[in-house]
């Protein structure tokens, strides 16, 4: 259910972007990040993990963090270059899909210390954030970041996973969500965003807090 929810967020993000509601589209990608970070761990907690779920997760990631961000960037900036802009925007999901396929067959994916190449989830989230704060970021920066992420996803560069940092897992993502939420409230534009963000964010923070407390208690027992 969480994985399909992630996929559906990607589909809705594409729809919002097509209607010109770019902030909504970006927020839905970020909600997809929340769901993506929870699905695997919850499946293991409930003993419901399966090969089907793992394959479905990759397919959902291609849509939510590959196709949706590329459409978002196209509609907000690359549209100026017409067909060429559309073709360039389409490179992002291609690189992301290749990165996912390589990850799925790689023996290094179990490493706790690093990822090989930038994960597509992080890359798509970065593009969503750039769009969300696009009013204060020059278009050239978005172009450079977009191009860089494409190549970083398929690179052999080892990206620290931060899994061994003594903070709640995905703590960085939580911080980003809190920052975005405060920014939205500060700007007084909360009515323009899906109300789902005000349900998803507290639930996600509660989930991470629970995992952190549970992990801390387990270490004390050991």
UniProtKB/TrEMBL annotation:
Catalytic activity, as annotated: a CDP-1,2-diacyl-sn-glycerol + L-serine = a 1,2-diacyl-sn-glycero-3-phospho-L-serine + CMP + H(+)
Recorded superkingdom: Bacteria
Keywords: Lipid biosynthesis, Lipid metabolism, Membrane, Phospholipid biosynthesis, Phospholipid metabolism, Transferase, Transmembrane, Transmembrane helix
Membrane topology per record: Multi-pass membrane protein
Subcellular locations according to the entry: Endomembrane system
Molecular functions per Gene Ontology: CDP-diacylglycerol-serine O-phosphatidyltransferase activity
Enzyme class: transferase
E.C. no: 2.7.8.8
Segments traversing the membrane: 12-35, 83-100, 112-130, 136-155, 167-186, 192-210
Keyword Lipid metabolism: yes
PROSITE patterns per record: CDP_ALCOHOL_P_TRANSF
Pfam families the UniProt entry points to: CDP-OH_P_transf (PF01066)
Name of the molecule in the record: CDP-diacylglycerol--serine O-phosphatidyltransferase
Species annotation: Cytobacillus spartinae
């Amino acid at each position: 259910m969480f994985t399909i929810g992630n996929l559906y967020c990607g589909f809705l993000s594409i729809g919002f972007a097509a209607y010109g509601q770019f902030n909504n589209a970006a927020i839905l990608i970020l909600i997809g990040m929340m769901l993506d970070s929870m699905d695997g761990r919850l499946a293991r907690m409930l003993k419901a993990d399966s090969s089907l779920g793992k394959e479905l997760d990759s397919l959902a990631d291609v849509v939510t963090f590959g196709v949706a961000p590329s459409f978002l960037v196209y509609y907000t900036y690359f549209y100026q270059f017409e067909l060429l802009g559309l073709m360039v925007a389409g490179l992002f999901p291609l690189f992301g899909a290749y990165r996912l396929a390589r990850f799925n067959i790689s023996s290094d994916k179990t490493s706790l210390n690093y990822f090989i190449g930038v994960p597509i989830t992080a890359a798509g989230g970065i593009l969503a954030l750039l769009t969300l704060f696009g009013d204060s970021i020059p278009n050239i920066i978005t172009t450079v970041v977009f191009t860089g992420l494409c190549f970083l996803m398929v690179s052999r560069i080892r990206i620290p996973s931060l899994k061994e940092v003594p903070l709640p897992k995905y703590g960085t993502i939580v911080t980003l969500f809190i920052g975005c939420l405060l920014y939205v409230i500060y700007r007084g534009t909360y009515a323009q965003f899906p109300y789902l963000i005000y349900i998803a964010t507290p639930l996600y923070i509660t989930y991470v807090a629970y995992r952190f407390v549970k992990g801390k208690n387990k270490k004390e027992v050991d």
